[in-house]
């Protein structure tokens, strides 16, 4: 009995010894060096939330910005991009930015107009004839004035990004004449001026978030919408609203915004990395947006279920004439000086941009 007990204890000791060596229990060497840990305390993370897909002008720009900031800061600043409204949608992203839950957002200008009515200047219809004029408006003197307005709501304005011209997509019939808007349920982004635009056209504007839009079209609560080709394509809206009128009647662009306290907490060199990255990508972002909308146009034109329509000169004039009172509407609710500045910025392009 005693012999068996001694043998069992000896076997246990041998087993434990072998096991502990295999698990390096007796090894005194430090753990291998992990360079991911390097300066972890010094790292700065910018959580950047937006509502569209990654393969859109905004999605691509957010990723490019993250890459530039990483390179310029030598890995010190990490921009974490959350697309598709996975963190916040356009109803709550501004509040999340302001309370510091996230550090950066890029809402469509129209979605900022409740807080800053003067920003509706860029919602005005038939302002721009071409992409060069859009670039001049988004990066000229007016843009500085618009960004400065953000200080009134304690948000830091950094830049503007382009998506492009809005078109009209419709579920049932193509929309070309003003009469065809009569009683039509049209989705609008939350901007008084856009609501007024569709009121003037005789339509029934319905304000809804980007994330709820698909369901509302599916349920026939909304028959038409104004949006860019890249948004119509990337979210698959064209499958339900396949009658697309190439109207180029308005602009969809983004304000690039940061939490003010977070911005103030950054040292000067980090602030420079952010502003320089945005400056460096201005032209690239604009051209990328134009190119992507062109690619999406081709993809939609190749789809036999999608039908494109254009506006005759007469129809375009009819829209513009019907919408003319909206300029007075802006002068009453916005800042007339911004409109004057916008015309000056556009004028400078003179077709030789
Ligand atoms: C929309 O709501 O249709 C757009 O503002 C979405 C976006 O961010 O481009």
Please describe what this structure looks like:
Strand 1, helix 2 and strand 2 form a beta-alpha-beta unit. Strands 1, 2, 3, 4, 5, 6, 7, 8 and 9 form a nine-stranded mixed sheet that branches. The chain has 353 residues and is α/β, with parallel strands linked by helices. The chain has helices at residues 2-22, 57-72, 93-98, 131-139, 141-149, 192-200, 210-218, 229-234, 260-265, 268-280, 282-301, 313-323, 325-333, 336-347, and strands at 44-49, 77-82, 104-105, 155-170, 185-188, 204-207, 224-227, 243-259, 307-310. The model is unreliable at 23-29 (pLDDT under 50). Helix 4 crosses helix 14 (336-347), helix 5 packs antiparallel against helix 14 (336-347) and helix 6 runs antiparallel to helix 13 (325-333). The chain has one domain: Bacterial extracellular solute-binding protein, family 7 (D-Maltodextrin-Binding Protein, domain 2, 3-Layer(aba) Sandwich).
Helix content class:
40-55%
Mean pLDDT: 92
- So, CATH architecture? 3-Layer(aba) Sandwich
Our count of helices gives 14
Number of strands: 9
Summarize the SSE layout with pairings:
Elements: H1 2-22, E1 44-49, H2 57-72, E2 77-82, H3 93-98, E3 104-105, H4 131-139, H5 141-149, E4 155-170, E5 185-188, H6 192-200, E6 204-207, H7 210-218, E7 224-227, H8 229-234, E8 243-259, H9 260-265, H10 268-280, H11 282-301, E9 307-310, H12 313-323, H13 325-333, H14 336-347
Parallel strand pairs: 1-2, 1-3, 5-6, 5-7, 8-9
Antiparallel strand pairs: 3-8, 4-7, 4-8
Helix pairs in contact: 2-10, 2-11, 4-14, 5-14, 6-13
The protein binds (2S)-2-hydroxybutanedioic acid.
């Amino acid at each position: 009995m005693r012999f068996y007990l001694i043998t069992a204890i000896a076997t246990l000791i041998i087993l434990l010894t072998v096991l502990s060596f295999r698990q390096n229990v007796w090894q005194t060497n430090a753990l291998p060096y992990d360079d991911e840990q390097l300066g972890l305390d010094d790292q700065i993370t910018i959580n950047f939330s937006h509502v569209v897909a990654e393969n859109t002008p905004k999605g691509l720009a957010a990723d490019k910005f993250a890459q530039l900031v990483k390179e310029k800061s030598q890995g010190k600043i990490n921009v974490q991009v959350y697309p598709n409204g996975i963190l916040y949608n356009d109803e709550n992203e501004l509040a999340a930015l302001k309370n510091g839950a996230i550090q950066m957002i890029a809402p469509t200008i129209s979605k900022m107009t409740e807080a800053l009515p003067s920003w509706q200047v860029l919602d005005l219809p038939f302002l721009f004839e071409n992409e060069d004029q859009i670039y001049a408006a988004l990066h000229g003197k007016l843009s500085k004035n618009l960004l400065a307005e953000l200080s009134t709501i304690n948000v830091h304005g950094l830049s503007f990004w382009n998506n492009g011209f809005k078109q009209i997509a419709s579920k049932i019939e193509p929309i070309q004449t003003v009469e065809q808007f009569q009683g039509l349920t049209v989705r609008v982004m939350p901007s008084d001026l856009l609501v007024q635009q569709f009121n003037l056209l005789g339509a029934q504007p319905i304000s809804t978030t980007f994330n709820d839009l698909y369901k509302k079209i599916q349920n026939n609560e909304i028959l038409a919408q104004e949006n860019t080709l890249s948004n119509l394509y990337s979210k698959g809206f064209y499958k339900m609203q396949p009658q697309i009128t190439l109207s180029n009647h308005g602009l969809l662009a983004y304000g690039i915004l940061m939490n003010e306290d977070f911005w103030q907490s950054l040292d000067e060199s980090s602030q420079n990395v952010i502003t320089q990255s945005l400056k460096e990508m201005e032209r690239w972002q604009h051209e990328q947006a134009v190119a992507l909308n062109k690619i999406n146009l081709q993809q939609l034109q190749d789809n036999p279920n999608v039908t494109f329509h254009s506006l005759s000169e007469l129809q375009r004039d009819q829209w513009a004439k019907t919408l003319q009172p909206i300029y007075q509407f802006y002068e009453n609710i916005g800042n007339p000086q911004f409109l004057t500045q916008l015309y000056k910025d556009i004028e400078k392009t003179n077709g030789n941009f």
